[in-house]
Write a structure and sequence with these properties.
By secondary structure, the chain is mainly alpha-helical. The chain has one domain: Cytochrome c-like domain (Cytochrome Bc1 Complex, Chain D, domain 2), CATH 1.10.760. Helix content is 64%, strand content 0%. Helix 1 crosses helix 6 and helix 5 crosses helix 6. 11% of the residues are buried.
Length: 106
């Protein structure tokens, strides 16, 4: 019984650490690749964001204007003035960024 509890604690700790690392990765990817235009908070309230006319991802009305598939395509292939990230990010990282964007919605 004690061995089972220790095993569960070890596995649980490893899962928590992996989840925290993944969250840090998506936040880091956002900060390095997206925040200059879209803002750290997703509002688009940056000099480049204003020039480019990016959407305010904190606004629920702005978020319903695109599907997850459309966001994945835009990040992967680029859109308008936004460059492609298919050479820089994996498909999983791009999918994680879409989830990160959705979390900005208030």
């Amino acid at each position: 019984m004690k061995t089972e509890i220790k095993t569960l604690l070890i596995v649980g700790t490893m899962v928590c650490i992996a989840g925290a690392a993944q969250a840090a990765d998506v936040a880091e990817n956002w900060s390095k690749n997206c925040a200059a235009c879209h803002g750290k908070d997703g509002s688009g309230n940056t000099m480049m964001g204003k020039k480019s006319g990016v959407g305010n991802y904190t606004d629920a009305a702005a978020q319903v204007k695109f599907t997850d598939a459309e966001a994945i395509k835009a990040i992967t292939d680029g859109k308008d003035k936004m460059k492609s990230f298919k050479e820089k990010l994996t498909a999983e990282e791009i999918k994680d960024l879409v989830g990160y964007i959705r979390a900005f919605k208030k």
